[in-house]
C-alpha cells in the first residue's frame, strides 16, 4: 500500500529549512520579516529577483544551500502531491488508513472471506441485520462493487494469508464465513482461523461433497454446499410447494418483521430450572421455541415439560420487538 509518510517528512524538512533561513536573515543580517521571507522563498524557488540580497558571506552560502536543497525538497513535495491528486492516491491512502483504524477497533465482529456471488448475498444479509463485519477480497473488479455498497469495511488481499486474516482482526472475531469457490482455499482459511481464534464460529462453503467432511475435520462448525441446498430446495418446491412457499416468505420477505433468533441461557436467567410450559414464552411474547441446543445435542420441538438449564441455546421464532423483550428476560436483566 502506498504511503503518505515520505511526503509528510519532506514537508516537515522543507518547513524547518525555510523557518531557519528566515530566522537567520532577520536576526543576523538585520532584515525585516518580510524581506527575510522574500529572500528565502526566492532562493527556494530559484526565482532570484535580486532586489533583496544577503549582505554577508555566510548569508550567501545559506542562499546557495536554499537554492539546491530547498528547491529539491519543494520539487519533491509538489510533484508527488500533484501526482497523487491526479491519480486519486491521496484520498485513497487516507481512506484506507481510516478503514484500517476502524477494523482494528472491532470486537466480536464477522469476517467474510470472498465477495463473489455467494459472498455478496452474505454481505447483503449482514448489512440488513446491521451486523459489524469485514470483507476480505483480492479481485479488483469485485472490490469496486464492494466500494459501491457504501460503508462496507474491507481488506484487499488473499484470505488464505495469515497476515491478511490478522489485519481483519481474526483473533477478536465472533465468526468467520468463508465463501470462496475453491475448497482448498476454504480449508486453509478454516485451519488458520482455528489456530488464531479457537472460539470463533466458522461457516465454510463446500463445492464438492467430499470436501464437507474435510472442512469439518479442519474445524468448521457449519459447512454449506450451495449446490446441494439448491437441489434439495428445487425438489421440495416440486413435492411440497405450499410448505416451500411459506418458508420462502419467512426467509425472503423482509417486511414481515418475523425473525429467527438464538438466545443463550446464563446462570442469571430467570428461566433456569423452569419448565417450558411455565415460562409463558408463547403466551406473553407470542414466540415459538423451535429447538433447544444442549451440550451439542438438538432438542427439536421440545416438550412442554422440558426444563431449561444453564448453557442452553434457545432457537426462537417470532416478532423482532418481542424477541428483543424476551432477550432481556433470558439474559437475567
TrEMBL record:
Gene3D superfamilies: 1.10.287.70, NAD(P)-binding Rossmann-like Domain (3.40.50.720), Regulator of K+ conductance, C-terminal domain (3.30.70.1450). The keyword Transmembrane helix applies. Residues 248-332 form the RCK C-terminal domain. Keywords: Ion channel, Ion transport, Membrane, Transmembrane, Transmembrane helix, Transport. GO terms for biological process: potassium ion transport. The chain crosses the membrane at residues 7-26, 61-79. Residues 107-225 form the RCK N-terminal domain. It is a multi-pass membrane protein. One of its GO terms (cellular component) is plasma membrane. InterPro entries: K_chnl_dom (IPR013099), NAD(P)-bd_dom_sf (IPR036291), RCK_C (IPR006037), RCK_C_sf (IPR036721), RCK_N (IPR003148), Trk_Ktr_HKT_K-transport (IPR050721). GO terms for molecular function: monoatomic cation transmembrane transporter activity. It is found in: Cell membrane. Coiled coil: none annotated. Pfam families: Ion_trans_2, TrkA_C, TrkA_N. This is Voltage-gated potassium channel Kch.
Amino acid at each position: 500500500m502506498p504511503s503518505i509518510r515520505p511526503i509528510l517528512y519532506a514537508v516537515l524538512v522543507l518547513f524547518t529549512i525555510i523557518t531557519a533561513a528566515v530566522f537567520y536573515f532577520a536576526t543576523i543580517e538585520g532584515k525585516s520579516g518580510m524581506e527575510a521571507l522574500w529572500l528565502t522563498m526566492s532562493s527556494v524557488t530559484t526565482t532570484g529577483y535580486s532586489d533583496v540580497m544577503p549582505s554577508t558571506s555566510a548569508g550567501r552560502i545559506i542562499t546557495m544551500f536554499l537554492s539546491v536543497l530547498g528547491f529539491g525538497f519543494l520539487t519533491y513535495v509538489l510533484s508527488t502531491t500533484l501526482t497523487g491528486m491526479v491519480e486519486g492516491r491521496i484520498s485513497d491512502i487516507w481512506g484506507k488508513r481510516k478503514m484500517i483504524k476502524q477494523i482494528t477497533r472491532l470486537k466480536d465482529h464477522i469476517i467474510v472471506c470472498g465477495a463473489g456471488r455467494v459472498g455478496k448475498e452474505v454481505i447483503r444479509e449482514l448489512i440488513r441485520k446491521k451486523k459489524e463485519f469485514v470483507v476480505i477480497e483480492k479481485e479488483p473488479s469485485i472490490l469496486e462493487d464492494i466500494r459501491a455498497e457504501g460503508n462496507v469495511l474491507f481488506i484487499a488481499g488473499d484470505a488464505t494469508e495469515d497476515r491478511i486474516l490478522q489485519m481483519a482482526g481474526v483473533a477478536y472475531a465472533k465468526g468467520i464465513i468463508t465463501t470462496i469457490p475453491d475448497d482448498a482455499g476454504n480449508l486453509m482459511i478454516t485451519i488458520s482461523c482455528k489456530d488464531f481464534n479457537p472460539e470463533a464460529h466458522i461457516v465454510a462453503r463446500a463445492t464438492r461433497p467430499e470436501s464437507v467432511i474435510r472442512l469439518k475435520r479442519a474445524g468448521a462448525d457449519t459447512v454449506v454446499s450451495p449446490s446441494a441446498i439448491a437441489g434439495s430446495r428445487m425438489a421440495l418446491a416440486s413435492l411440497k410447494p405450499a410448505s416451500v412457499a411459506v418458508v420462502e416468505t419467512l426467509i425472503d420477505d423482509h417486511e414481515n418483521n418475523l425473525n429467527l433468533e438464538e438466545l443463550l441461557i446464563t446462570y442469571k436467567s430467570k428461566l433456569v430450572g423452569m419448565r417450558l410450559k411455565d415460562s409463558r414464552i408463547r403466551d406473553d411474547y407470542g414466540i415459538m421455541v423451535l429447538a433447544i441446543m444442549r451440550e451439542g445435542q438438538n432438542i427439536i420441538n421440545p416438550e412442554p415439560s422440558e426444563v431449561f438449564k444453564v448453557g442452553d441455546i434457545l432457537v426462537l421464532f417470532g416478532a423482532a420487538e418481542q424477541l428483543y423483550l424476551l432477550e432481556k428476560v433470558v439474559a437475567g436483566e
